[in-house]
Structure formats: C-alpha cells, structure tokens
Design goal:
With about 230 residues, the protein is α/β, with parallel strands linked by helices. The protein has a single domain, classed as P-loop containing nucleotide triphosphate hydrolases (Rossmann fold), CATH 3.40.50.300. The chain has 8 helices and 12 strands. The strands form 3 sheets. Strands 6-9-10-3-11-12 form a 6-stranded mixed β-sheet, sandwiched between helices. Strands 2-1-4-5 form a 4-stranded antiparallel β-sheet, covered by helices on one side. The protein has a two-stranded antiparallel ribbon with strand order 7-8. A hairpin with a 2-residue loop joins strand 11 and strand 12. Helix 3 runs parallel beside helix 5, helix 5 packs parallel to helix 7 and helix 7 crosses helix 8. The protein is globular and about 50 Å long. About 35% of the residues are buried.
C-alpha cells in the first residue's frame, strides 16, 4: 500500500498569503482524490507542488514515509496531465510510450499496455498517425485520449490530471458531450488500480459526473483553502 501524505502545505507568492493554505491530506494507492474549484483557486499550484514542479513555502510531504525533498522527480514516478489540447509532434504511438521508455519499462510490457490503452480508449486507428505541427492538427478528443493512454502505459505511482479541458478551444467545449470524453477518463482511472490519482476541474458538472461514476465525493477548493 502506497501513501501520499501532505502536512500543513502552504504556498505564498511575493509575500502574499493564500495561493495554497495549510493543506493536510492523505491519499492511498488505488484512491481517487477529486477537487473542484474555479480558476485561480489554487488547484494547479497544489498539483505542481505534489509533482515537484514547485516548492511549498512551508509544510512537509511524504511518499511511503519518505520525505519528498530526498526523492528525485523521476523516482516519484508521477504522470502529470494538464492543458491536454496542446500540440503534438510525431507518431502518436511513439509519443504515448515515450514516458514509459524513459522509465525503463520493458518493451514487451509497453507493447501489451499500449494495446490495452488503445482498445480501452478507441485509439487503434490513430496509433501510426504521424502528426506534424505545421501541416495538420489532431482532433482534440484524440489528443485528450492519447494523454490518458500515456498514463495507462506508464502505470505511474501518482497520476495528476489537472483541469485537462482547460486548453481546449471554445468550439470543442461547446460541442462537448460529457459521456464521450469523461468516460475515457473514468476507464483510465479504473484501469490504474495501484495508482494514486488526483483530478482537478473548474466545472461543477464535470466534478459531479466523475464523482457519481467513480462512487466518490468531490472536494471543493477556494482561495487556496481545501474543504474536505
């Protein structure tokens, strides 16, 4: 059983209080921690601190009883998904497996997981698609699913999905069908049975759908304070 433990985590910018305020949290492997809050509420700051991309102003973090400061980002084995509609370059299958290769996962294991991920997320026909930034653009729903496929192939210790629809364009969001794009996320989370999963969203409807589908409650964050 793995555990992520946060004790009195606070983050201030330029001497101002409130980016993240006195967060105390314990999440075990296999658990899903869901946070809803408006843009600027502190969700992404908290995610970046957990991922090791920012340092807290005060407080302590532990993973399996080991203080975070003594563990490198690679050793933490975190898959961070944020702003998921950004551009991709190269063949989709190579992009999806890149993180797993970098973590030294065996080729046969990667191939097996890629097959599972592509079937689970409906990406089979896209795997050999060669995307080049200047000449073409992948559909945004495929980019979202490919980001989730990265997590399935990696099987990280911690998966952070931070407001994954935030980078999508307005036309995509206006035509958004909640079942079509949140179900792949739900399938991904259910497939990663030994991973600590943290999901944040700005949208209440999205939070309610995920909470209902995963049989969990969602937590609210506002002005840097996490209401558990």
């Amino acid at each position: 059983m793995q555990e992520l433990l946060l004790k009195n985590i606070t983050k201030n910018y330029d001497g101002l209080d409130g980016a993240v305020s006195d967060i105390n949290l314990s999440i075990a492997s296999g658990a899903v921690f869901l946070v809803q809050g408006s843009i600027g509420s502190g969700k992404s700051t908290l995610c970046r601190i957990i991922a090791g991309l920012e340092n807290p102003s005060s407080g302590e973090m532990f993973f399996n009883g080991v203080e975070y400061g003594s563990v490198t980002i690679k050793q933490r084995d975190i898959c961070y998904i944020g702003d998921s509609c950004t551009l991709w370059n190269g063949k989709l299958n190579k992009t999806i497996i890149k993180g797993a290769k970098n973590h030294g996962i065996e080729k046969s294991v990667i191939e097996d997981r890629l097959k599972i991920a592509s079937e689970l997320l409906g990406l089979e026909k896209w795997l050999k698609h060669n995307y080049k930034k200047k000449s073409e653009k992948l559909p945004q729903d495929i980019i979202l699913k490919a980001q989730l496929a990265r997590a399935i192939v990696r099987e990280p210790k911690i998966l952070i999905i931070d407001d994954m629809f935030l980078g999508c364009d307005i036309e995509f969001l206006e035509n958004f069908v909640i079942d079509d794009f949140l179900n792949p996320l739900i399938n991904t989370v259910k497939n990663l049975k030994n991973t600590i999963t943290i999901i944040t969203t700005s949208e209440i409807v999205e939070a309610e759908f995920l909470a209902s589908s995963l049989a969990i409650e969602y937590n609210v964050m506002a002005s840097g304070i996490l209401f558990l």
